[in-house]
Structure formats: C-alpha cells, structure tokens
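Give me the fold.
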Amino acid sequence: MTSVLREDLGQDLAMMARLVQSQLIRGMTAFFQRDPRLAEQVTQKDDQVDNLLGLIEVKCFERIAETAPNDVRSRQLRGVFRVALNLESSATTPSTSPSRRSTCRVWPRARSRSISPVRRAWR
C-alpha cells in the first residue's frame, strides 16, 4: 500500500486523521466540561471532515477507474477509501446523524454526589 500512500492520498489521509483526532478530543472535552459552545464548534467543523472524505473519494475512484479490477493497486485504493470512510464515521457529529443525537448532549449537573451525571442520564 505504500506506493498508493506515496501519492498525495497519504497526506490527505494523515490530514483527515489529525482532524478527526482533534474533533474527538474537543467533543469529549465539551461533553465532560458541559460546554455547549465548544460542542457547537465541534459540530461546525464536521463539514471539513466531510469535504476531505469527498476529496479522497474522488481521487480514489478516478484512480480505480484507470486500473484493472483485480489489480493490487485497485485493492489498495479501495482500502484507502475504506479507511477514510471509517475516519469520517468516527467524526460524525450528533447533529448530522439522527441515531447519535441522544448520545451526545450536554448533561446537566448531577444533584447528588453519589450518582455521576452519566449514570443519572441513563436512569
């Protein structure tokens, strides 16, 4: 896969991975600090991840079209695209995914010190 990654796809994937990592860290920080403003910033940056996925998708599909279906390079390009797709799904925010909306809201402070905010929310 190194020949495929030596192309500009490796740089695109690395940039996407860094952005996703940043989004996950900021999302968790917003969650644990109960910071709606930070959570909104995370949501707004989701489009950057989507745009990178689109760029990688176009590059992969254009290059796959130029190779034989069972060629090693074709399989490597499909693998690169799957990695990018998995990265994007890791960074999907609740506002863009209805199935995740309820899992990532800013929890109110727990009234009792004996029950954590997360445990209280699942009661």
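The domain at 2-121 is CATH 1.20.58.220 (Methane Monooxygenase Hydroxylase; Chain G, domain 1).
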